[in-house]
Amino acid sequence: MTRYDLALIGFGGVNRALAELIAGRGDALEAELGFALRVVAITDLRAGSLVRTDGDGIDLAPLLAVAPGELDFSAMDGGDAEPRNEWVIREVPADIVAEATFTNPMDGEPALSHVRWAIEAGKHVCTTNKGPVALHCRSLRELARRHGVCFEFEGTVMSGTPVLRTARRMFGGLAVTGFEGVLNGTSNYVLGRLESGLSFADAVAEAQALGYAEADPTADIEGYDVQLKVMILANEVLGAGLTRADVPCTGISALTAEDVRRAAAEGLRWKLVGSAARRPDGTVEARVAPVALPDGHPLAGVTGPVNTVAFHTDLLGTVTVGGPGAGRVETAYALLSDVIGIHEQSGRAVAGAKSLQEAHRG
Amino acid sequence: MTRYDLALIGFGGVNRALAELIAGRGDALEAELGFALRVVAITDLRAGSLVRTDGDGIDLAPLLAVAPGELDFSAMDGGDAEPRNEWVIREVPADIVAEATFTNPMDGEPALSHVRWAIEAGKHVCTTNKGPVALHCRSLRELARRHGVCFEFEGTVMSGTPVLRTARRMFGGLAVTGFEGVLNGTSNYVLGRLESGLSFADAVAEAQALGYAEADPTADIEGYDVQLKVMILANEVLGAGLTRADVPCTGISALTAEDVRRAAAEGLRWKLVGSAARRPDGTVEARVAPVALPDGHPLAGVTGPVNTVAFHTDLLGTVTVGGPGAGRVETAYALLSDVIGIHEQSGRAVAGAKSLQEAHRG
């Protein structure tokens, strides 16, 4: 049985939910997927670091019994009060580094360094962190190629909804000419509540109370979160090399509740749309802006916190993929789907190696 | 370069569109996908059969220049006035048989025999034919396993929209608990036109004029087409062993235009929904019936001829995949995606064989 040793970098909601999945259904996953998962290291800004590479690795159940804010690795066997990210990523023997620290849209740090260190150490990386992927995907992919490891990031767009992997693996032989997406659940929820008659401030407050919006909702409301996702999708699906400056961004605060209600009365629904399209000269044009969509548009019926991306293709016309845009379990599943992707890619190498062994034996 | 030799069984709209793709962009596909396609046999009820296994195989351009109804293989080199399906499928050396004859919902014939003959002859099969897949998927899959070949049928549900392949390859580690789908474009188009105020008869006539509905629209309107797709999806995604008798079926003719308009005024949209769900005891319950969906339901915004399936899962909640439900080019793409799937699956064997050769050489 193949086993992958994981190092979890950042132990907030997402990696904690991944640990819960491994602790709670690791055996079932092993039976279904054909590989076992063992967590050998965890680092966290507040809790410090914990390393156990012997036996079953880190015993997750006791950690998960402690409330997130109260976790302290320093007194544990193999623990330290410091996160020691660089040392853990570079030196602790692990097969896969799962990076789930906070997104920094300016320079991608410190996640960018975490990803680089892991790849340089010959470890596969999966991350839910939009920063390094939006800003440095091409160079990180090239670095991964040189080191013969996988760099996976399904969770950076629409949490565990298989958007990037669908575009990468289900569209062979098609030309994708562009896409439009409702890629932020908070802003979409707010727009729906404006249609229902709430004021902008009340709608945002409600989204915060429901856990959709952060304490500071700026990135959601002003479109900056969508901007990063458009960069990731455009760079991945259309091969564009977009920077933030290439993606003009207008958020929904440009709209009034009255605008939204009046449009709804005319059968139009305002959505915050992130889009990109290939120009005739081959370059890619992208933007984030509110758009009043008519009934029948593939994104018009996307309501509440749901996200959907509509890919425009030559042979199939428009193909949509919809699902949760956020959520800790949903995003943890993205990491699990990345691990499955890593297993499938390295599985071929394993199959080749097995034939080799059999040939040597024969 | 790997090359796959194809035998096209049935040369109606779909396989003709596949031939157009191969003739028109075979080189581009070869560069992108890493394999070449050569058509070595075509059979058709009206045109007869044509076999060319030398050189570049069948020269497609002259065939495609002839109007579909006027094609006659009998006078051509390698041609015969008879389709000779069994002989062609069993005896002509080909790697993949692309079966695209008409769907027979009663016993699946003659497509069922076509698929069996191909598998028994050690050939991979891809088909867009719902009959054999809905009625005999389990036994055909088992037959294919025993003969070491692939049995692919993406085009049986939502043409080339990657629904079956998404469920099979993108949901690892998830439990799919059920699905609901708008799986027939004709009936969905008709329902939309009833909302706009048309009578039932006028809406059906319009769908026929637009090419969405067949001359006899019974299978679309009465839900029988959706019933087959529900069986395929439920058997494939939920491991159910459903027969037609297990899927009660009510079509949209049970609705009046007035029902649809009144619901629309209340914000409800009637859709013909094919659904299945796992019961607590593990068995699967399925049905086809019109349902009045509220705004916010993932299928409520599916308009016109578009199809969408909403998969219900444990970790991700609802994930939707939408796209074209029919169309000759769209369905031909399904066959191409099946060939890509066959290539990926046999690619591993090839990688193994290559390692073997290298080991022998080394």
UniProtKB/TrEMBL annotation, chains A, B:
Pathway: Amino-acid biosynthesis; L-threonine biosynthesis; L-threonine from L-aspartate: step 3/5; Amino-acid biosynthesis; L-methionine biosynthesis via de novo pathway; L-homoserine from L-aspartate: step 3/3. Its cofactor is a metal cation. The active site is at 229 (proton donor). Gene3D superfamilies: Dihydrodipicolinate Reductase, domain 2 (3.30.360.10), NAD(P)-binding Rossmann-like Domain (3.40.50.720). Pfam families: Homoserine_dh (PF00742). InterPro entries: HDH_cat, HDH_CS, HDH_short, NAD(P)-bd_dom_sf. GO terms for biological process: methionine biosynthetic process; threonine biosynthetic process. Keywords: Amino-acid biosynthesis, Methionine biosynthesis, NADP, Oxidoreductase, Sodium, Threonine biosynthesis. PROSITE patterns: HOMOSER_DHGENASE. It catalyses: L-homoserine + NADP(+) = L-aspartate 4-semialdehyde + NADPH + H(+); L-homoserine + NAD(+) = L-aspartate 4-semialdehyde + NADH + H(+). Residues 162-340 form the Homoserine dehydrogenase catalytic domain. The keyword Isomerase does not apply. It comes from Streptomyces fuscichromogenes. PANTHER family: HOMOSERINE DEHYDROGENASE. The keyword Oxidoreductase applies. Catalyzes the conversion of L-aspartate-beta-semialdehyde (L-Asa) to L-homoserine (L-Hse), the third step in the biosynthesis of threonine and methionine from aspartate. NADPH binds at residue 130. This is Homoserine dehydrogenase. L-homoserine binds at residue 214. One of its GO terms (molecular function) is homoserine dehydrogenase activity. Its EC number is 1.1.1.3. Belongs to the homoserine dehydrogenase family. It comes from the Bacteria.
